[in-house]
Amino acid sequence: MFTGIITHTGTITDVTKHGDVRVAIACPFVDELRIGDSVAVNGCCLTVTEKTPDSFHADLSEETLSRTSPRWKKNDHVNLERSLKLGDSLDGHLVTGHVDGTAIISNISESGGSHLLMLDAPHSLSRFIAAKGSVTLDGISLTVNKVEGNRFWVNIIPHTWQQTTLKERKTGETLNLEIDLMARYAERLLKA
Length: 192
Description:
By secondary structure, this protein is mostly beta strands. The protein has helices spanning 62-67, 123-126, 158-163, 181-191; strands at 8-18, 20-26, 38-41, 44-47, 50-51, 55-60, 77-82, 101-111, 114-120, 134-137, 140-148, 151-156, 174-179. The protein folds into 2 domains: 8-82, Beta Barrel (Elongation Factor Tu (Ef-tu), domain 3); 101-191, Beta Barrel (Elongation Factor Tu (Ef-tu), domain 3).
């Protein structure tokens, strides 16, 4: 489990294909990681399979590649978050690291000192997005400002803009989208 509070950014230093795709990610907290640990990389829960002095390696399955943004290339910057430990503060919201799909950035505008992102969610996921509810975009816990059909808006405060990879994103690009965990279970219960 994660919180969606990004603590660091890293850089993909290598991408290789060994059945699955293996990525190496330069990481400022690599010394604290063990083989088998979970790290959210742009919101995607990945398992540390190997370490070097400055990076960790993780495998991306076809399922992961099919649901996530195509930013798994050498030199791409990524948002990083270590998994929660019992007793850690839950500052964002409960995030599983199981990316549901991608949302397309339709517009980026400034609003005061913040940035307002207008995004289009896939129709299959838009029903889970509610005004004042939570979403995770590229691993970042955000509050939804407004929803119209499959379009929704989020406000990015200056701190989040500067501390994450959002400042590098452009209109037309996609962000990894994880819907709120409670919405997912509510739908399952209603279907039962």
